What does this fold into?
Amino acid sequence: MGEMFWNVAPYVTLAIVAVGSWWRYRYDKFGWTTRSSQLYESRLLRIASPMFHFGILVVVAGHFIGLVIPESWTQAVGLSDHAYHLQAVILGSIAGLATLLGIALLIYRRRTTGPVFLATTANDKTMYVVLLAAIVAGLCATALGSGVVGEAYNYRETVSVWFRSIWVLQPRGDLMAEAPMYYQVHVVIGLLLFCLWPFTRLVHVFSVPIAYLFRPYIVYRSRDGVRPGDLVGAQPHRRGW
It folds into this structure.
């Protein structure tokens, strides 16, 4: 892929995410949800959902460290390139495999549980395919780029620099064009996933329930002795001491 593509594609993606999220919130506010299916099946969901979510959080943290923090910074604190790549490969592989297994179980659950499958939209199916492809491509890039398979490649000198150049409005598409094909494929799938993001259930990631931390307690009152059909508060008042 040419230098022009890598200069333009990130900004097109950012525009789609920004405008799409605004449109979704403006015209589909009640659809801004995960559309939970826990009511239909919870046994497998209790295993697959935490595995996927905790795994993806570690993956996101690893991407942030690898793409945002310059190589010179980690060297300045005494972390050698070998030590950095070793921990990145170990933690990244564990988190990636956990994420892959989690989403595989979620897809299996969605396909084999009748009510859950009936509640699955075309958007959901497209999202699952692209998300699964991004995870697999990421694991392949980790294996190939780290030297586990083939020759090692230091992506922090090209891919990371390109990523940071986008945010300062000085894109270095030439660096991304020099990166190996498996990194380019991973990034293209990632950009496609972000383009789909505002129009799928993934949009719930942008909703942080901060108000939940400050909400009042929910008060539960006993209804002992109330027969079906009785109105709450219709029981005779009991005398105290």
In short: The two ends are 84 Å apart (CA to CA). The chain has one domain: 3-206. The mean pLDDT is 85.
